[in-house]
Fold:
Amino acid sequence: MREPENIRQVAETGIDWMGFIFYARSARSIDNGKWTIENERKSSSLNNSQFSIFNFQLKRVGVFVNATPDEMMETAARYRLDYLQLHGNESPDICYTLHKRGYAIIKAFSIATEEDLKPVADYEGRADYFLFDTKCSSYGGSGKQFDWSVLSAYKGQTPFLLSGGINPDSVEALRNFSHPKLAGIDLNSGFETSPGMKDVEKLKTFIDKIKNKKTDI
Structure:
């Protein structure tokens, strides 16, 4: 997320977490948008805090790719991030260092086959969540779905988020997927009108369907 009005609208859809990308090479980088922490504070103070993202009961996730621990900690303090999502080649030691300093960590892994799950074991106890995304040649997502059945091989203790190609037509597939460590789903390009801009109606309709699933159980 990076555009003020879109942020406000999406925050009202019932999501739990909102992501902000701090990776300059991403088309969705916060640097390419109009939202800054300073502008938000000014806007919220002038408008009785009706706009401010800080008023919504959701977690703020900062997405990083191979940033240094100092860079991530500085950004986390500035933007009041609740989670640091590491989407690059960050080592278990880097995750451990941040985790020991009190930062909540999401470590992303690119998955295509069961073999891709093997490195995950090295990060046990060093992250609060894992994120399993579709394997591709670049950092970040491909907008395509991987074969979720390979996750049956994941026997770790860390809960995970499911990512990669989830779109408005994925409801039935999600209903049919289960794993004891599944904690949530990551929604991004499948709900965009352009990079960084979310289709609010598609998101709200999808979220309502997913939440209805919970009430049916």
